[in-house]
Write a structure and sequence with these properties.
Elements: H1 4-17, H2 27-41, H3 44-64, H4 69-83
Helix pairs in contact: 2-3
């Protein structure tokens, strides 16, 4: 069984190679993340952990970025209308 220190070192190595996992700060990084995600999905089973981590980063950016405000508001309105 791996010890916590080894797992922590592996995580640091992954983030060093893929710093976008720390967060997306602009639309260019968002686009790069989407392209990378598409590439990773081609080998889904092998990349599942990174796919999930990257998907969470993308979702957080899309939820919080002003770029998506109008879209998110429309989605909320549509979801509310569908529930009624």
């Amino acid at each position: 069984m791996l010890v916590t220190n080894e797992i922590t070192q592996m995580a640091k190595a992954i983030v060093t190679q893929l710093p976008i996992l720390n967060g997306i700060s602009n639309s260019d990084e968002h686009q790069q993340a989407l392209i990378l995600l598409e590439d990773l999905i081609e080998h889904y089973d092998d990349n599942l952990i990174i796919i999930e981590a990257l998907s969470n980063v993308i979702a957080r950016y899309e939820d919080e970025s002003a770029e998506f405000d109008a879209f998110n508001k429309r989605q909320i309105a549509l979801n509310s209308a569908a529930e009624n």
